[in-house]
Amino acid sequence: MTIDIAQLESGIVKGDRRALSRAITLVESTRADHRAAAAELIEALKGANGVSREALRIGLSGTPGVGKSTFIEGFGGMLTAQGLRVAVLAVDPSSARSGGSILGDKTRMDQLSRDPNAFIRPSPSQTHLGGVGRRSREAVALCEAAGFDVVLIETVGVGQSETVVAEMSDLFVLLLAPAGGDELQGVKRGIMEIADIILINKADGDLKLTARRTCADYSGALRLMRKRPQDPEGFPKAMMVSALESTGMEAAWREMQALTDWRRENGHWAARRAAQARYWFQEEVRQGLLARLETADARAALREMGEKVALGQTTPAIAAAALLEQIGAADAT
Ligand SMILES: Nc1nc2c(ncn2[C@@H]2O[C@H](COP(=O)(O)OP(=O)(O)OP(=O)(O)O)[C@@H](O)[C@H]2O)c(=O)[nH]1
Ligand SMILES: [Mg+2]
Question: How far is C-alpha 45 from the chain's CA centre?
Fold first, then answer.
């Protein structure tokens, strides 16, 4: 593809969806010239109109089948009905998504995918999580520049992807299914700690009672957690929703807004974005170092020195220092 950065930039700023799509394809590319063009585009958009527009970025996580797609369809539709523009991005580790669920999403987000105020971008096929973070973060930045009010970043609740999504979100929402008390233990503590709002989905029909109990259990568990400085009284909180019946959506949105307003007024919103920028900078450095290990020379050296270490001809520390020296990443101390 021929890349006209200025054209992409003006298209995005005007909210042209085709320009946005093409730009996202660009940031997803691993080709060196595309990477350079993507970096230039992101940099150019940062100063678009002299202000960088801020969307509300909502991270949304939940295990397969919990109802993420159904929730996004209902929640996104409620937002667009209020005149808000909504972008939906997905962040998935390579193994998490089967071909089937993309097909499923087409039907589960049928209304939203045809809504002129919504933009849905399915996740690209991924190689490793390191690259996923950058690409998704840049896609978020593009949606923000395109004037979307809300960017929903969905991830399936496996592995490290929640952390990656939390690091690019202003709010983190965890979707859970109704379950017996024993299963409360099943949610990893780390995920509870990054959640701002826990939504117990499927609070309808036969599941309603169980959902109520699950919600009470989580409310109790959240109250026992140490209060975080970024939370007003009562947060993080657990609530019930039914994505299928579209109930609880307005209440959930109200709480998200209340939390957002409080954080903005108390400086936590800006502080979080600043901390995230710092995190992504460090992550880029880490990824850059790792990439240096991926060259043919570095790989050959790794093999060779690994062999010497195995044979006892040198020590792991000395071999490592030599290799780092060779790739130009030696410890200067
Ligand atoms: N009863 C009930 N069923 C629901 C609700 N939300 C989703 N479901 C059902 O749960 C199933 C999975 O819903 P999805 O929205 O595809 O779940 P998902 O989290 O996107 O799943 P993956 O994309 O596979 O990770 C579907 O059969 C939905 O109809 C709900 O609020 N109530
Ligand atoms: Mg889904």
Answer: 20
For 88, which DSSP code? Answer: E
Alpha carbon separation from 322 to 39, 149, 180, 298, 317 (Å, rounded): 32, 50, 55, 11, 9
Instruction: Report the alpha-carbon distance of residue 160 to residue 51 in Å, rounded.
Output: 33
Q: Give dist(CA 311, CA 225) in Å, integer.
A: 50
Probe residue for ligand 1, chosen from 70, 152, 206, 245 as the CB with the greatest number of ligand atoms within 8 Å: 70
In angstroms, rounded to a whole number, what is the distance separating the alpha carbons of residues 263 and 168?
16
β-bridge pairing 56-62 and 86-91: unpaired
- Residues 6+ positions from 93 with CB-CB distance below 8 Å: 126, 129, 132, 156, 158, 159, 160, 161
Angle, helices 296-310 vs 316-326, to 10°: value is 160
Q: How far is the CA of 198 from the centre of ligand 1 (A)?
A: 16
Choice between 175 and 54, residue whose per-residue pLDDT is larger: 175
Query: What number does the ligand 1 atom closest to the CA of 243 have?
Result: 31
pLDDT tens digits along 71-127 = 999 999 999 999 999 999 988 765 444 444 454 566 678 899 899 999 998 776 555
Ligand minimally distant from the alpha carbon of residue 73: 1
Single-letter amino acid, residue 42: I
Transcribe 293-310 into DSSP letters.
TTSHHHHHHHHHHHHHHH
Q: For residue range 196-237, what is the model confidence (pLDDT) as tens digits?
A: 999 999 999 999 999 999 999 999 989 888 889 999 999 999
Predicted TM-score (pTM) of this structure: 0.89
Residue of 102, 77, 112 lying closest to 253 (CA atoms): 77
Q: What is the pLDDT of residues 265-290, one digit of tens each?
A: 999 999 999 999 999 999 889 888 88
Ligand 1 pocket list (CB less than 6 A): 62, 64-70, 101, 104, 108, 156, 201-202, 204-205, 207, 242-244
